[in-house]
Amino acid sequence: MQTCSSQFPFSCVKNMKGSVKSFSLIPISFCFLFLFRDEFAVPARHLCHPQQREAILELKKEFQIQKPCFNRSPKTVSWVNNSDCCSWDGIRCDATFGDVIELNLGGNCIHGELNSKNTILKLQSLPFLATLDLSDNYFSGNIPSSLGNLSKLTTLDLSDNAFNGEIPSSLGKLYNLTILNLSWNNLIGKIPSSFGRLKHLTDLSAEQNKLTGNIPVTLLNLTKLLDLSLDYNQFTGMLPPNVSSLSNLEVFYIDCNALTGTLPSSLFSIPSLLYVTLEDNQLNGTLDFGNVSSSSKLMQLLLGNNNFVGSIPRSISKLVNLDTLDLSHLNTQGLALDLSILWNLKSLVELDISDLNTTTAIDLNDILSRFKWLDKLNLTGNHVTYEKRSSVSDHPSLSYLYLSGCGITTKFLEPLRTQHNMWRLDISNNKIKGQVPGWLWELSTLQYLDLSNNTFTSFESPNKLRQPSSLEYFSGANNNFTGRIPSFICELRSLTVLDLSNNKFNGSFPRCIGKFSSFLEALNLRQNRLSGRLPKKIISRGLKSLDIGHNNFVGKLPRSLIVSSFLEVLNVESNRFNDTFPSWLSSLPELQVLVLRSNAFHGPVHQTRFSKLRIIDISHNRFNGTLPSDFFVNWTAMHSIGKDEDQSYGQYMSIYYYFDSMVLMNKGVEMELVRILTIYTALDFSENEFEGVIPSSIGLLKELLVLNLSGNAFTGHIPSSMGNLSSLESLDLSRNKLTGAIPQELVLHLDSRWDT
């Protein structure tokens, strides 16, 4: 120790001058103790106040914690009496006075409501609380207005819960707030105008809710705002024209709403702006970026899927720092497109200029040679040309390429051969012909491949796959494939979805598919020329959808299907199955769609429990016998169907959008249904040999939209319970032996939608 630290007192330094050898141990020790006397006293001062510790412990009793909690211990485990609450997980105290200033219970698996009087009282017992983080839990109910009394709060994070109701205007009294996060809840109503008083706010997030109304003009008072995120709501009206008042704004996320009007060009005069997302609204007019500066810092600009018209503004070339650009669905009104406007954007990583309604042909090679760092490219819906070049070494390494509906008529695109980092490739809805090249399956990173709706005729066999394929989604539907389904398909062991429907494949059901791993969730082979019996050991245990309709399969349905306990959709229509009613399918707990139409099924249909069945079509078979009066008692999914949040957007399988479709008779007309699990309920027993009376329990199926019992031998009266079927759009009871009048209860529901 030759010198004293600069933090030592001058008197100490003075005593330590001179030769090191002459140092006395006593002065040095004294100096050390003098310097660190405050630090030695810290633990005593850091002990939180007893009344605040008691308030926190009482607060703990209010919480219901789900166990296990993400395979980790909840923070509240460390909250025990007779210990310093300042050392507890999720608690932070003021270093000088020991007051609790932070309560962080984010990701703690807490259930219940926050608006109990006791909970709020305990929070108010922490008078210096500056940070309250309750994010990523399971809180429900309304946000209590009394949170507005926590006047010292600078951060309030209630995101990623299940709060509902309106945002309390009392939060506008939290004048010290810098961060307010209400995102990922079920909040409704408007943003309170009182938020305009939060003059210190730098971050306001309320995305992923159900908020409505206009974006309040009072938010323009928040001149310190850096981040405004209101995306994925239901906001209407126009963007404030003087949005440039938010002079420090960096992040402006208002995509996925219902905003109308023009894009205020003043937005782009904000010098600090980095990210702008306004896609998926109803904005209109021409694009105008105003006097945007070449020094603009803007990195992300997403304006796609609006109602903008006209050409791409030339001023966009000044946004040289852009790495993400989405101008999709810009309606150029058939005008010529000058893509050279974009050539100056050399930092682009993601470019979406799909569906531009232009007559200009886009040269794919030109795009690929201009943007060296491009990772994602979407040209869907445009006219794309490609001329083979001797070298593709100047092309970027793409992860995502979308060329659906681009009028491509050449054989397979050769530049793709070098794209060894490709994850998603969509070249559907073109006129690409010939063979699917074998090297395609050697792109080891490829996870999503859509070749549907082309004119491919065959597959070139790949070389021995050098490493396991990563492919999870493959669609070759609606092509001209012939011959047997190639065996190498079975080597794609990571497949989640396989769709080879609407081709001309023949031969037997490919037995190797039974060797798939449990990843396979959807298999669609409908509308081919496959024949023979189904193998006794079939498909994977994780299967959710199996459609083999419109082939020539014979024999019985293999009982091994019951091992697929996740099966939701089973469609075997228009084959030659000869079997009795497969009542054993009722043991499948998730079965929602069952289609046996147009086969040779026969015999009675015994009472079964189909608790989740929404669509059943067993028409055009030879089923016979009577149906007991309580036949439909256990078909509870059709009694009353609630809104399933997980299926509200149709993404009910895996990580990909894959919509089952089927054909039903509605008002005597064949109607193709898609997204059948979410929007339809139907029962078709027509063209069989049923007799006896129609079961009175049919009146329990209150959610039915289509009911067809025609072409049987039902007798007796129409049951009065059918008056409960108020949702019916199509009812067909023709060609039976029914007698008597139509029940008055049923007549009351007749309207123009019906075909009776």
Q: Overview of this structure, please?
A:
It is a single chain. The chain is mostly beta strands and 756 residues long. Among the domains are: 10-45, no CATH class; 52-212, Ribonuclease Inhibitor (Leucine-rich repeat, LRR (right-handed beta-alpha superhelix), Alpha-Beta Horseshoe), CATH 3.80.10; 576-747, Leucine-rich repeat, LRR (right-handed beta-alpha superhelix) (Alpha-Beta Horseshoe). It is built from eight helices and 50 strands. The protein has a 26-stranded mixed β-sheet, with no helix packed on it. Strands 1-4-6-8-10-12 form a six-stranded mixed β-sheet, with helices on one face. A five-stranded parallel β-sheet has the order 30-32-34-36-38, with no helix packed on it. Helix 4 packs antiparallel against helix 5. The protein is globular and about 85 Å long. The protein starts with 9 loop residues before the first helix and ends in a 9-residue tail after the last helix.
Q: What is the overall shape? A: globular
Which CATH-level-2 architecture of the domain at 576-747? Alpha-Beta Horseshoe
Beta-strand percent range: 15-25%
Distance between the termini: 101 Å
Give the number of helices. 8
Largest sheet: 26 strands, mixed
Using only C-alpha atoms, the radius of gyration works out to: 34 Å
- Summing up helix and strand content along with how strands pair, one would put the structural category as mainly beta
What CATH calls the topology of the domain at 576-747 is: Leucine-rich repeat, LRR (right-handed beta-alpha superhelix)
